[in-house]
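Incident review: delayed structure delivery

Summary: a single-chain prediction request sat in the queue longer than the usual turnaround. Root cause was a stuck worker, restarted by the on-call engineer. No data loss occurred. The affected request and its eventual output are reproduced below so the record is complete for anyone auditing the incident later.

Affected input:
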Amino acid sequence: MNKNDIKKELMLGKAPARFSHYCAGNLYYTVVLVEGKFQFPVPTVESVFDQDADTERTILSPDLGTTTFEKQMPGALLIRWISKAVDSGDFVKIDQEE
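Output delivered after worker restart:
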């Protein structure tokens, strides 16, 4: 599926995104589309290099802003992260069975 098809389906079909789990600084959500069930991450932290201290540190991702992440929410509200996941190859199809 390409990014535009995914966006159209989320906007028109109102497919809900459901929280799956949290692992290694990522919230994972699933969304069921015509082509199957897909999973994608929403990064909550990121690593930054502190030049003054010559070290890497972990900070809260500024991309989160004031977004509230619910157990279930309209998938269209997560398009920002779905688009990033499609671009990075992290929007992956998973089994339909629960």
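Verification: The chain has one domain: 3-94.
Action items: add queue-age alerting; document worker restart procedure.
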